[in-house]
Specification:
membrane, three-stranded antiparallel sheet, D-Maltodextrin-Binding Protein, domain 2, cell membrane, alpha/beta, signal, ABC transporter substrate-binding protein, cell inner membrane, globular, five-stranded mixed sheet
């Protein structure tokens, strides 16, 4: 079957669909909002309760499913009039969804989980869809790279062998300590994938990225490397100013450092955790309950966009790059966006390597919100002290199921399967848990059914019975 179904959807058809949905919504088509089991069984083809929507995003290439759903007419095809609005930073975006100024958003996977747990803020958010796999990298300054590069193993072509371990960074960090200077690195938000990936990479190389005290957003207790928050578009300028010596961020802001010749990516997140889940599409729980058909329509449109992005080996990626380069979306040079989004990744001038899986939006069940992915994020929150106390395995599963909503994803995806829009094989048959994952940089296996055993198996990080205090880690 064709993987680009819907490309022929005309502007006239979009307008007709939108007008019809508005007319239905204005003629008493709203019904009592289902909840609980009734919500799960909500019709995926019912009248749209709220056809006019505003969705938020941060200027990163992994917001692509939202831009494509808008620009290729997939939202309009579902009877939705969607405005996409860039946000200044992840905190502003989160507050916009919680406060209702935004109906939903391209969001860090850790944000709806943390909000539900009351880390930083308290709100009932859900993640009915995962937006992508992979898409981040860790970049260091030219100064740091000049010290790391001579120590690295090289391939037959004389270029560094990837993935590069943070053990190559450890002597440099140690020298900073001896000089009484902090070694500073940036990430985008305390509960971001980037924070946990950067911490994982550092810890796997023998460096402690620090612990969070209760209520603390800095997470620098006992830290060898001081991590701080910088909004993604500001990362290159902050690196160039010397405020930080490296950062973990999504594209195109690693490639921007390469183009500006101010830094060198040393590892992609696929090298830290193979095919890791990245962003999610998040909405308030009460939005899904009040507007079940609108929710299903949004998900169907986004799933169509995800399929379009991965269709036929990425044949549409060049067009996607042009769309994303527009100032109302990512607003970076098309050349910079293309450097990571078209099947390759540039580490430094003259070192461009194949990276067909750097951005995955539809393949490998990228859209399905697996409980085991949510649980992994919680293991890292516990590992570094954001979850301050121990909980049994069932607690992790319970919290994951409160946030990640594969039932809503399946309602949308199965409707697309029945309509022959996406293939049945693209929807997983699963209990929501992936098999044991051995795709990590340090080769520590992860079993989502056994979060506490996994936490115990990691060399650096809190263990059973340990807590973080102002004087350091105690207990255990």
């Amino acid at each position: 079957m064709s993987m680009d179904r819907g490309f022929g959807f005309t502007r006239r058809a979009a307008v007709v669909a939108l007008m019809a949905s508005v007319a239905l919504a204005g003629c008493g088509s709203k019904s009592e909002a289902p909840s609980g089991e009734a919500l799960k069984a909500a019709s995926a083809a019912g009248a749209i309760e709220k056809p006019v929507l505003k969705l938020g995003f941060i200027k990163l290439t992994d917001m692509a499913p939202l831009a494509i759903a808008k620009e290729k007419g997939f939202f309009a095809e579902e009877g939705l009039n969607v405005t996409l609005e860039p946000q200044a930073n992840w905190k502003v975006l989160l507050d916009g969804v919680i406060g209702g100024q935004l109906d939903g958003a391209h969001m860090l996977a850790g944000q709806p989980i943390a909000a539900t747990l009351g880390i930083g803020t308290q709100a009932d958010l859900i993640a009915p869809l995962s937006l992508d796999l992979n898409g981040n990298a860790i970049t260091v300054s030219n100064k740091v790279w000049a010290q790391m590069e001579p120590t690295l193993p090289k391939g037959p072509d004389g270029k560094p062998t990837h993935p590069i371990s943070a053990s190559a960074l450890k002597p440099i960090v140690d020298s900073y300590k001896q000089q009484g200077k902090p070694f500073n690195m940036g990430m985008v938000f305390p509960v971001s994938t980037h924070n946990y990936e950067l911490r994982y990479w550092l810890a796997a190389g023998g460096l402690n990225p620090g612990y969070y005290l209760p209520g603390d957003i800095k997470g620098t207790t006992d830290a060898d490397v001081q991590l701080s928050v910088t909004p993604p578009p500001q990362m290159p300028a902050t690196l160039e100013a010397g405020t930080i010596e490296g950062y973990c961020v999504g594209e195109p802001w690693n490639q921007a450092a390469v183009q500006k010749k101010i830094g060198v990516p040393v590892v992609t997140d696929d090298g830290i955790w193979h095919d890791n889940p990245e962003k999610v599409f998040s909405i308030r729980k009460d939005f899904a309950e009040k507007y079940p058909n609108t929710t299903a329509a949004m998900l169907r449109a986004i799933i169509k966009a995800q399929q379009w992005l991965d269709a036929d080996g990425g044949k549409n990626r060049a067009e996607a790059v042009k769309i994303l380069s527009q100032p109302n979306y990512v607003g970076a040079d098309a050349q910079v966006i293309a450097a990571s989004m078209t099947g390759k990744f540039t580490f430094e001038p003259g070192d461009t390597r194949p990276a067909p899986g750097f951005n995955i939006f539809f393949d490998k069940y990228a859209g399905y919100p697996f409980y085991s992915d949510a649980i992994w994020y919680m293991t890292q929150m516990r590992r570094w002290g954001q979850i301050p106390a121990d909980h049994d395995d069932s607690w992790y599963v319970e919290k994951a199921k409160a946030v990640y909503r594969p039932d809503l994803y399946l309602a949308a995806a199965n409707k697309l399967v029945s309509d022959k829009v996406i293939p049945a094989a693209s929807v997983p048959e699963t209990d929501g848990f992936k098999p044991v994952d051995n795709g990590f940089l340090d080769h520590v296996p992860y079993d989502g059914h056994k979060p506490n055993a996994y936490i115990q198996s990691l060399k650096i990080g809190l263990k059973q019975g340990q807590k973080v205090t102002a004087s350091g880690v105690t207990g255990g």
